């Protein structure tokens, strides 16, 4: 396999409930106050138990595009990385750069903690309203670029909850830009 194929081979699409995955780290699409909520955030706190929220409270808050790390409580993974995606506001408010930051900063934390398999939900594409196709483009591009400089990350899963996102990711990963 050439270098590009090796990078692309580390990215996988999966339709699943992220809370069930036995990977090193799962990423949570949190809010700035780290106070829990609906969507994947609600599912992670429900399944993981109160320990995760205790650590979130100690950390306090997280800026949009940044990431923090906590225990995984009762989840099968080792750690939860909480990142705050941008609220979609038409696309002229720096949303793309903030969304890219979510992927980059989450993977930076994973590498720092020697977590080599990481599962991402489709950050910002639920309650925060980011257009799914554009969000997937940014996610794949940013992860690909990170993997290029970080061989220690072995696998990145894009965990799609809905069929629409799954199709978008499959299509983009099968047809990467030249
Ligand atoms: N596993 C994987 N993906 C899931 C799961 C699950 N168990 N549940 C939902 N998704 P969202 P956001 C998908 O709304 O847009 C929260 O209230 C979902 O289908 O969870 O970043 C936070 O506290 C969608 O594709 O996150 C924030 O306030 C994706 O996860 C706010 O929502 C993200 O949808 C963040 O909004």
UniProtKB/TrEMBL annotation:
Coiled-coil stretches: none
Pfam family, one: Macro
Segments forming domain Macro: 1-177
Name of this protein: O-acetyl-ADP-ribose deacetylase
